[in-house]
Structure formats: structure tokens, C-alpha cells
Write a structure and sequence with these properties.
By secondary structure, this protein is α+β, with helices and mostly antiparallel strands. It has one domain: Ribosomal Protein S5, domain 2. 37% of the residues lie in helices and 21% in strands. The protein has helices spanning 10-19, 54-68, 92-106, and strands at residues 21-24, 28-34, 41-45, 79-85. Strands 1-2-4-3 form a four-stranded mixed sheet, with helices on both faces. Helix 2 packs across helix 3 (92-106).
């Protein structure tokens, strides 16, 4: 799990969905905006339409954070964003590949 300082708050999530840009991959969507702050804040969102049980949604989020931990340092400074799952994908290596492709599009 990422430290609390590197995760997005609920107010920032609202701002991301209202004003943010987005990048798409097969099972993830990355919605983000750039901020003048020097930190990087990223969270994972697993909608109820993807997995009905909260246990499975939390599992998806945890797997996402494990995959993201390798690449958090490669994101540009000032990015505040959220990865939103589009389909159920609990394989960490596939999530890592999608984060890599989104990161390549971002830079």
C-alpha cells in the first residue's frame, strides 16, 4: 500500500473527475490533472459495477498498489490522478504492463 501522503483525497478525486484529462488502456483508465505541488498522488478506484463484493474491490485496489509501487518514482512531479478499473483484472503482471503503457503515454 502506498503511504497516505501519496494517495488522493476524496476532494481531489472530485476535482479529477470534473477537470482532469484521461488516458485509456484495456482494463484501466487513468484520470489525472497537473498541480503546482512537487508530490505525486495516485489512487486506485474499483467501481461496484466491476466487482459486487467489497472484498473483491479491495483486493483489486491492493493489487493495483502493489503494481504501482515499482513505478511511482517514474511519474512526473505534480501529477494527481486515479486509476479506475474498467474490468476485473487481479493479475499483478498485467496491471503492471498497463501502468507502464499509461506511463509511456504520459511522458
Amino acid at each position: 500500500m502506498l503511504p497516505k501522503k501519496n494517495r488522493v483525497s476524496t476532494k481531489e478525486v472530485d476535482k479529477i473527475f470534473k477537470e482532469g484529462k484521461f488516458l485509456v488502456s484495456p482494463s484501466l483508465t487513468f484520470k489525472y490533472f497537473k498541480s503546482p505541488n512537487k508530490g505525486v498522488k495516485i489512487s486506485f478506484i474499483a467501481p461496484k459495477s466491476i466487482a459486487k463484493l467489497a472484498v473483491k474491490r479491495n483486493l483489486l485496489r491492493r493489487r493495483g498498489y502493489v503494481a504501482l509501487s515499482k513505478y511511482i518514482d517514474q511519474f512526473p512531479l505534480g501529477i494527481i490522478g486515479a486509476f479506475v478499473f474498467k474490468k476485473y483484472q487481479d493479475n499483478v503482471s498485467i496491471i503492471e504492463n498497463e501502468i507502464k503503457t499509461i506511463l509511456a503515454k504520459l511522458n
